């Protein structure tokens, strides 16, 4: 039996593994993809301490992976499908089998929320994308639209503006939500055109995206934008589908106390999966450390 199963290999999960292993715990890390989580989909990370000139997402993910490499823990590349049991005796059900654990740290992160417009799923990979760093290069010197007004939309619009010919930054309100530093950069970028107070009315194209039609939220006036790419950044949804019903959530995000304890004893949550104010790499790492320490204290009680 494992002392802890950590679900998710992003900054929160890898930090939890680091702390648990250093505390002498027997740990399994379940991650369905490669280490790094959303960091891998981020271009430049400008606010992680220790990197005054910023750091590329893939580079930071590599450094996180290198930090746990060689540590004494087990790793399974599998999808967690459900979680049952109680503190001291959980079963983590995965696509590669079941694992017994005394505690569980849920660091499964979040994924981009779809816009919900007709044709979005059909045109995914054929013009529609949720990842500028993955797909931006396909639209080199072509016009694209970015949807959203938060940090992700602004940051990714800035990233794309260096590759594509023109970025239409479509936001449903007349002011952006994202940080001022990004707003200022967007205002200075010559090839980013803010399209404010507009929502996406429809997508054009059968097998490839040929354009979008946006609609002004007050006047109802429609405008066709001829774009080859559509990058959607309208918020995140947490990866919690495998959690038992009695784990309390808020708008889908897992509720914890300040020690990362969920409503179910023995289950802890860390990182973007958690209901919290600030979703950053640095707070994810902090959550991971706290969750590991709290799990360790509970393990001491369970083992007493
Ligand atoms: P977010 O902050 O929740 O912003 C989502 C944006 O999408 C908002 O502007 C929202 O409009 C808009 N939106 C939501 N639903 C929509 C819909 N159906 N149609 C059109 N627009 C819609 O999400 P995010 O930008 O993905 O960021 C997620 C978290 O990660 C945030 O906490 C963010 O601060 C953090 N993050 C930080 C950084 C950084 O610090 N460098 C980078 C990326 C993300 P309204 O404004 O009208 O609500």
Gist of the model:
With 304 residues, the chain is of the alpha/beta class. The chain is built from six helices and 21 strands. The model has no long low-confidence stretch (mean pLDDT 96).
Structure description:
There is one protein chain. This protein has helices at 11-22, 57-68, 132-135, 151-161, 180-188, 281-303, and strands at residues 2-7, 27-30, 44-45, 55-56, 74-76, 80-86, 89-94, 97-106, 110-112, 128-129, 143-147, 166-170, 192-195, 198-204, 211-216, 222-225, 229-232, 236-238, 249-250, 253-254, 267-269. The protein is an alpha/beta fold and 304 residues long. Helix 1 (11-22) runs parallel beside helix 2 and helix 1 packs parallel to helix 6 (281-303). The site of NADP nicotinamide-adenine-dinucleotide phosphate (NAP) has 20 residues, from helix 4.
Average pLDDT works out at 96
SSE order: EHEEEHEEEEEEHEHEHEEEEEEEEEH
Helix content: 10-25%
Using the alpha-carbon principal axes, give the shape.
elongated
Q: Largest sheet, described in full? A: 7 strands, mixed
Q: What gyration radius follows from the Cα positions, in whole Å?
A: 21 Å
Cα distance spanning the termini? 16 Å
| Each distinct ligand | NADP nicotinamide-adenine-dinucleotide phosphate
The stretches of 5 or more residues where confidence is low (pLDDT under 50) are none
The class by helix and strand makeup works out as alpha/beta
In what range is the share of β-strand residues? 25-35%
Number of strands: 21
Counting DSSP H or I runs of 4 or more residues, the number of helices is 6
């Amino acid at each position: 039996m494992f002392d802890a199963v950590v679900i998710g290999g992003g900054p929160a999960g890898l930090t939890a593994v680091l702390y648990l292993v250093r505390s002498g715990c027997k740990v399994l890390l379940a991650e369905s993809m490669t280490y790094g989580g959303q960091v891998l989909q981020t271009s430049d990370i400008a606010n992680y301490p220790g990197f005054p000139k910023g750091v590329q997402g893939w580079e930071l993910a590599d450094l996180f992976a290198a930090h746990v490499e060689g540590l004494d823990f087990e790793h399974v590349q599998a999808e967690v499908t459900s979680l049952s049991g109680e503190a001291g005796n959980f079963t983590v059900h995965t696509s590669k089998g079941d694992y017994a654990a005394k505690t569980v740290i849920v660091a499964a992160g979040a994924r981009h929320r779809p816009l919900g417009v007709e044709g979005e799923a059909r045109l995914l990979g054929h013009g529609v994308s949720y990842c500028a760093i993955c797909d931006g290069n396909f639209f080199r010197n072509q016009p694209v639209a970015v949807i959203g007004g938060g940090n992700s939309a602004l940051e990714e619009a800035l990233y794309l503006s260096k590759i594509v010919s023109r970025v239409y930054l479509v936001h449903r309100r007349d002011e952006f939500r994202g940080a001022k530093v990004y707003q200022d950069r967007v205002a200075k970028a010559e090839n980013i055109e803010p399209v404010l107070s507009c929502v996406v009315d429809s997508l054009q194209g059968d097998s490839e995206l040929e354009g979008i039609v946006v609609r002004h939220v007050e006047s109802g006036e429609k405008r066709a934008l001829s774009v080859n790419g559509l990058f959607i950044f309208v918020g995140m949804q947490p990866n919690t589908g495998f959690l038992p019903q009695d784990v309390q959530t808020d708008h889908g995000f897992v509720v914890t106390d300040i020690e990362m304890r969920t409503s179910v004893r023995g289950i802890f949550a860390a990182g973007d999966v958690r209901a919290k104010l600030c979703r950053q790499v640095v707070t994810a790492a902090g959550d991971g450390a706290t969750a590991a320490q709290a799990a360790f204290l509970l393990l001491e009680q369970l083992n007493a």
